[in-house]
Amino acid sequence: MTSHANTRVVDTADVADNADLGSGTSVWHLAQIREHAVLGENCVIGRGAYVGTGVRMGDNCKVQNYALVYEPAALADGVFIGPAAVLTNDTYPRAINADGTQKSADDWDAVGVTLKRGASVGARAVCVAPVTIGAWATIAAGAVVTKDVPDFALVVGVPARRIGWVGKSGHPLSEDAGYWVCPVTGDRYAEVDGELKEVAE
């Protein structure tokens, strides 16, 4: 394991020798970090969480208790993965081939979930690969994401659908005089062709 200053890995965690943990990162009880995973600075990996082989994670990410992040997922800076959430990697899962033989690692191609900066995935949500979750988007608890999610979108349900927009604070935006406004920061956004863009002050 490559670890840097102030990295904390508890004794019951299972971290591969060739995983790379950034400065200030913490790995808690019973978590598993697989081979060649790369975690940025100040990440928190909760109890019983799983981070698959070769997963890439930016700085300041949080993977909560019992979340499953399967390879080849890619998480940008500031991504939140809620308790027991799952990022899948097999579009057509089977334990056996059509001829009845057991599948091996060579019998399928892993596909990943991509999460952009500041995105959040709620508790027990499932992101079915391959999908991209846009920057600052929020996936509600229990949602099942089967298609790409735009930046700043708030999606809920099975399958997940957009019901609104959220700002960088995570709070839902309110419509005001043709703009979408964050009740916490006051930031304004404009909706253009189904996408939300920040409005410069």
From TrEMBL:
Provide an example Pfam family for this protein.
Answer: Hexapep_2
Q: Extract the Gene3D superfamilies matched here.
A: Hexapeptide repeat proteins
Q: Which InterPro entries match?
A: Hexapep (IPR001451), Trans_hexapeptide_repeat (IPR050179), Trimer_LpxA-like_sf (IPR011004)
CDD domains from the entry? Answer: LbH_WxcM_N_like
What protein does this entry describe?
N-acetyltransferase
Species, as recorded? Paramicrobacterium chengjingii
Q: What does UniProt list as this organism's lineage?
A: Bacteria, Bacillati, Actinomycetota, Actinomycetes, Micrococcales
